[in-house]
Amino acid sequence: MTMAQAINHTLGELLARDRDILVFGEDVGRKGGVYGVTKGLRKRFGSRRVFDTLLDEQSILGTALGAGLAGFVPIPEIQYLAYIHNAIDQIRGEAATLQYFSQGRYRNPMVVRVAGLAYQKGFGGHFHNDNSVAALRDIPGVILAAPSRADDAAAMLRTCVSAARVDGRVCIFLEPIALYHTRDLTHGDGAWAAPPDPSAHVEIGRARAYGDGEDLTLVCFANSVPMSLRVADRLGRDGVGVRVLDLRWLAPLPVEDLLDHARATGRVLIADETRHGGAVSDSILAALTDAGFNGATARVTSTDSFVPLGPAAESVLLTEPMIETAARTLLKTSPRPHPVEATSESPTQRPRRFGFGRRRRGNTVENGS
């Protein structure tokens, strides 16, 4: 399945399993969403559980607040990331604060699905290509998930619903629009489509690692994950051992996994598709510094700009060549560090299909597999 199909499939499973789940938002019912992510759910589960709302984000989130208080587990959709800023106080001043200010007596659980980030081809502009998540990451207690692939999207959505149901958590589930229907990592390989496991969960605050190279750790999330994997493959052909770390969770950050993989190579490059000012990489670098990491670090980000229409978007967004150039510069300008073996057991997933360049085994150096 693609990411869009996996999310649709998982929503269907959750609606069938739990009668207290509601799915609603602009065009999610009759139309099935702008990108078809909720297609067919209204027909299967009826208009009382899957329904269209007013074209008003404050009303959508306000409905979720009331539904959560009434004992439901609402899964509202905000059609585009920029639209959530129109109603951010519903999250900041209401949803995220209710348990805190009521000393746990009341709660309004929800999983807010948000189509967002950039890289839409031939479409965009101020309100439809947005790469700013700083306001969401600044709200205490809110969980911010950002899957990059189909199987993770399914498992992380299931985890968010469980966190909402059991602990009353407010979760923002950020879905990269440009990856909704992506099947290939490289042309025709089908590597970015995957069958979701109906029982899988992803622990909140745990990353996913690809490869086990010892020369460079590429830290990324969402759209920058497939870009980083392609860069890692090219570097691997030149004998550079790279590992790619998909953060998956932007709040809370997977700091334990980040430190494990940073120490394993001693060099960290962060490929951050958000804007340079208020970027996610700010907190990643701070986490490394706070933990006493003394290896080499660098980052590449998008420009401090709204995303323009059409091909002009490429002038402000993070690109694959930018990641590769920064990686080669970091490798060239920083001396080879002495990797520090990870001391904690990390349950990060390491698919064996990706192995970028050199991998040390004792006194030998082999090709990755």
TrEMBL record:
Query: Which SMART domains does the entry link to?
Result: Transket_pyr
- What is the top-level taxon of the source organism? Bacteria
Task: Work out whether the entry's keyword set contains Oxidoreductase.
Answer: yes
UniProt cofactor(s) = thiamine diphosphate
- Region (Disordered), start-end ranges: 330-369
Task: Please verify whether the record's keywords include Electron transport.
Answer: no
A Gene Ontology annotation in the biological process aspect, one of them, is: response to nutrient
Tell me which InterPro entries the record gives: THDP-binding, Transketo_C/PFOR_II, Transketolase-like_Pyr-bd, Transketolase_C
Q: So what EC number does this one have?
A: 1.2.4.4
Q: Which UniProt keywords apply?
A: Oxidoreductase
Can you name one GO molecular function term for this protein? branched-chain 2-oxo acid dehydrogenase activity
Record field: compositional bias (Basic residues):
350-362
In what residue span(s) does the Transketolase-like pyrimidine-binding domain sit? 1-182
Matching entries from Pfam families are given as: Transket_pyr, Transketolase_C
Q: What is this protein called?
A: 3-methyl-2-oxobutanoate dehydrogenase (2-methylpropanoyl-transferring)
Q: What is the protein's species of origin?
A: Nocardia bovistercoris
Recall the taxonomic lineage recorded for the source organism: Bacteria, Bacillati, Actinomycetota, Actinomycetes, Mycobacteriales
